[in-house]
Amino acid sequence: MNEEKREKTQCLIIGSGPAGYTAAIYAARADLKPMMYQGLQPGGQLTTTTEVENYPGYPDGTQGPQMMEDFKKQAERFETDIRWGLITEIDLSKRPFVAKADDGKTIEAETVIIATGASARWIGLPSEAEYNGYGVSACATCDGYFYRGKVVAVVGGGDTAAEEATYLAKLCKKVYLIHRRDELRASKAMQNRVFHTKNIEVLWNKVPKEITGEKEGFAKKVTGVTLTDTKTGEESRVDIDGLFVAIGHTPNSDLFKGQLNMNETGYVKTAPDSTATNIPGVFAAGDVQDHVYRQAITAAGTGCMAAIEAERFLSAQE
Predict the structure, then answer these.
(1) Residue 48 to residue 52: CA distance in whole angstroms
(2) Mean pLDDT for all residues in the chain
(3) Catalytic residue list contains 143
(4) Exposed (0-12), middle (13-18) or buried (19+): which is 2, by Cβ within 10 Å?
(5) Which pLDDT band, with edges at 50, 70 and 90, does 41 fall under?
(6) How far apart are CA 98 and CA 92, in angstroms?
(7) At 4, phi and psi to the nearest 5?
(8) Domain range for residue 158?
(9) Residues 194, 225: Cα–Cα separation, whole Å
(10) Catalytic entry in 143, 241, 287, 290
C-alpha cells in the first residue's frame, strides 16, 4: 500500500444527494472536516428529476439538478472536501475504517456515513430513458401533482404499484395499472384498495413495448404507451399523459454486504430512531436505509441525524 496516498479523516461520507450533502453540512459545521466521495451519480436520483415543488424553501419550485447544486455549494461553503469518484473497497472490521477510492487513494476514517442511495428499477426501454423526467417517473409522491386531472399509467403489480396507483387516483382523472400477469402480487389489503377505486383500471397480461410522445426542440411530453399482451402477443395503445414505473428500487449497498446488517432486499438496517448500523461509528442515511418514504426531505433529515450521531460518537471516544 502506498503510504503517500494514505489520507485520514474524522468523517468519510460515501455518496451524495440530499442525505450526503446534508450530512456534510452538519459534519463540517461541527468541525469534523468531512471528506465526501460523490459516487457515480453526483447528486443522486434528483439529478434525473425535472421539477421539484415539494421541498420547503423553494416557493416557486426548482429543478432537481439545480437543487443538488445548491446543496453542494452549501456543503462546500463550510469546507467539505468533496471529491469526484467512488469508494471501491472498505474494511469496517476495526477503527479507523480503511477505504480505497477509484483515484488510487486510501482513506482512514474514524467514522463513516453511508449515503449511497437507491436506484429505481426501470423497464429498460429506450423510449423510457428518452422521456425520463418528461412524463416518465418512478415516484408518484414526487411527481403526481403535475398530472392533476390527467390520465396516467402505473407499471407494476406489487404493493408499491398498488400504492402509487391509489395515490394518483386522488389526483388524476384516470389511472391505468399495467401488470404482466393475471393477478397482482400486492397484499390483499392493497388489492382491495385498487379494485374499489373507481378511476383505476387494471390492464392484465400487458407489458409496455414503447412509450410515445411529442417533441418540440428540448420540450417533450408523453402522449401514450404501446402494450404487448403477454399471452397473445397482440399490441394495443393507451393514450396517457404520464407513466409511473413502480417495479421497485435497489439499494446501492453491495459495497457493504457481509459487513453491515441488511434486510432481505439489501437495505441497510439502522437502530430505531437512529442512523446507527450494527458497527459502532458507521451510520447510514437516506434511501440506502429507507425503503418506506424515499423522499428528498426525509433523506436530508437522516443525513442531519447521521452527522450529529457521528459527532457524538467521536466525542464519546475522547
Answers:
(1) 11
(2) 94
(3) yes
(4) exposed
(5) confident
(6) 7
(7) -65, -25
(8) 122-245
(9) 21
(10) 143
Provide the pLDDT for residue 3: 52
Of 174 and 53, more confident: 174
Phi, psi angles (nearest 5°) of residue 58 = -120, 75
CB 44 within 8 A of CB 65: no
Give the C-alpha distances (Å, rounded to integers) separating 23 from 115, 158, 178, 293. 9, 33, 38, 18
One-letter amino acid at 208 equals: P
The CATH number of the domain holding residue 185 is: 3.50.50.60
pTM over 0.90: no
Catalytic residue status for 142: yes
Tell me how many domains the chain contains: 2
Exactly one of 31, 102, 139, 290 is catalytic; name it. 139
Of 195, 222, 245, the one marking the end of a domain is 245
Do 302 and 255 belong together in one domain? yes
Are the C-beta atoms of 109 and 9 separated by less than 8 Å?
Answer: yes
* Residue in this structure with the C-alpha cell 465526501, named with its chain if needed: 36
pLDDT digits (tens, 9 = 90+) for 239-251: 999 999 999 889 9
In this structure, the chain runs to a length of: 318
The reply to whether 159 belongs to the active site is: no
Q: Single out the residue of 249, 247, 224 nearest to residue 237, CA to CA.
A: 224
